[in-house]
Each structure stands twice: as C-alpha cells, then as structure tokens.
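The methods section describes the discrete structure representation at length, but only in general terms. Since the whole study asks how a given chain folds, the encoding of that fold should be made plain. An entry of this sort, consisting of the sequence and the corresponding backbone structure tokens, reads as follows:

. . .
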Amino acid sequence: MDSLIEYSQFSLLYFSVNKMTENKVQFEEKFPWEFSTAIENAPICYIPLGVLEWHGEHNAVGLDAIKFHVICVKAAQLSGGVVFPALYWATNTKE
C-alpha cells in the first residue's frame, strides 16, 4: 500500500512539474504518446555524440557530450524534434 501512495504522490509531482515545462524535448522525459506527437510535428531526432577524453584536472571527462547535449536541447526547443540521451565514444589515451 505504501508503494502505491508513493507512486501516486510521484505522479502528481511529475505532472505538476510537467505543466511548468511544456516544451519537453528530451526522449527520456517523454511518455510514448508525447514522443509520437513530437515526431509527427517535427520528424527530427538529435543524437549528441561526444568523446570520453582527458580535458585536464579541471573538466569532466565527458565534457564534449555534455555541452553538445545542451546545444541539442536548445535547438530542439527552437525547431522541434526530440533529443536522445548522449552517446559517448571512448578513447584509451591520457595525457
């Protein structure tokens, strides 16, 4: 019973937050019907691709994909479409 109450509380929270962000473009945040509608409206899919590489002690190893994901989200908010989660290409070198 507790899990049902937690689930319903989560659902209420999710849908109330969702109302505040009506322009969801990230695939992992969409329900199946939202994805279908988004693709019908603008058949564009953004796939951020970044290299896992050494950027020094001051930056994250996956910085390229993180930055590209943000750029894809902004582009999708402007022109439509759906942004898929970032794909990482790994290297085996370090400076």
User: Anything to note?
Assistant: Residues 25-90 form one domain. The beta strands are 45-46, 49-52, 82-83, 87-90.
